[in-house]
Amino acid sequence: MIPAVLPTYARAPLHFVKGEGSWLLEEDGRRFLDLGSGIAVTALGHAHPALVAALTEQAQKLWHVSNLYEIPQQQALAEKLVAASFADTVFFTNSGTESCELAVKMARKYWYEKGQPEKTDILTFSGSFHGRSSAAIAASGAEKMVKGFAPLLPGFVHLPFGDMAALEAAITDTTGAVLVEPIQGEGGIRALSDAQLQQLRALCDERHLLLILDEVQCGMGRTGRLFAHEWAGITPDIMMVAKGIGGGFPLGAVLATEEAASGMVLGTHGSTYGGNPLGCAVGCAMLDALTAEGFLPDMNRRAALLRQKLEGLVAEHPAIFEEVRGQGFLLGLKVRVAPGDFVKAGYEALLITVPAADNVVRLLPPLTLSEEEIAEALARLEATATALEAAA
Ligand SMILES: *Cc1c(COP(=O)(O)O)cnc(C)c1O
């Protein structure tokens, strides 16, 4: 008999009932250190007082009104995002995959309105993940996501990740945009270098393509800058955001320049919940926290400490670890065991980590992870590695 919950997930037998900062409490009383953050979502940890206050205050006043009316919280969050980024305008969604849908529509509508409706193709990369909706799986093209779901949305050209020569060679008269994660998350914490991102930006300018960055996982402070592309000193034309922006409340956004957004006029897109007062009240509190003076510099200091300790861990357990990679609190441990086995062994040490492709275990702690918690994380990672060595 089919389970009451559609069985599309492989779930660990853990039942968390409460979250406090970097910690998750299991029903049976065990306290887990959470280096997963619900996959880069709970950026300020669990039950952060500023987010709880924003949500509960708004919940007392007004949960929902339609986008038929002005929504002041939405206006405020859009203004904060515009002030803090390259963008001139923002559309709110409820998830990363919805942001992907709009990014694709926006790029195609742009060229349509420019009188070049043939420029519908979007170049994407192997190992990418943009969500599970029809446009997002077609964009990724990965066998495990698209198999059985044909016919797929056409117009995506898949290229080897980081192969700039292949990218340049793939541009034709029908190419309209490039869609890429500056650092792949699900793909295994694989980063484009600053030089590659700069080259990509230059290529898009030269060949008249829109650059769409998917910062759903790497954005919102996770790499130590508000957005990951800032490290390379470039800006996109369109950017997808979700995960961390709501800190656990479902919220996403598409940020764009005025030019790139110029085709999205009255009536061309919409969402019932997107930009709802509850989500945007939380989003405002999140953005205020991340942009508060000293927050990201302090996070970068703690991230450097974690990185240094992880390098030591990798050196001490060469049978288990190959390398540590990533930036800020978007980290990957490339392991020599099955990542799923490592994550499972971590549960025994009361530690939450997240598997990814390319034999990587992700560490995505809350951006608030303290120095004492970093020491605790290392002790638990060490115990996990030691247990796996003993079992080998
Ligand atoms: C998680 C993720 C998505 C999809 O977000 P959902 O909210 O699950 O739809 C898209 N892109 C990237 C890079 C992601 O990590």
From TrEMBL:
Pfam families: Aminotran_3. Its cofactor is pyridoxal 5'-phosphate. N(2)-acetyl-L-ornithine binds at R132, S271. One of its GO terms (cellular component) is cytoplasm. The keyword Heme does not apply. InterPro entries: AcOrn/SuccOrn_fam, Aminotrans_3, Aminotrans_3_PPA_site, Class-III_PLP-dep_AT, PyrdxlP-dep_Trfase, PyrdxlP-dep_Trfase_major, PyrdxlP-dep_Trfase_small. The modification N6-(pyridoxal phosphate)lysine is found at K243. GO terms for molecular function: identical protein binding; N2-acetyl-L-ornithine:2-oxoglutarate 5-aminotransferase activity; pyridoxal phosphate binding. Pathway: Amino-acid biosynthesis; L-arginine biosynthesis; N(2)-acetyl-L-ornithine from L-glutamate: step 4/4. Keywords: Amino-acid biosynthesis, Aminotransferase, Arginine biosynthesis, Cytoplasm, Pyridoxal phosphate, Transferase. It catalyses: N(2)-acetyl-L-ornithine + 2-oxoglutarate = N-acetyl-L-glutamate 5-semialdehyde + L-glutamate. Binds 1 pyridoxal phosphate per subunit. It is an enzyme of class 2 (transferase). Homodimer. Belongs to the class-III pyridoxal-phosphate-dependent aminotransferase family. ArgD subfamily. This is Acetylornithine aminotransferase. It comes from Salipiger marinus.
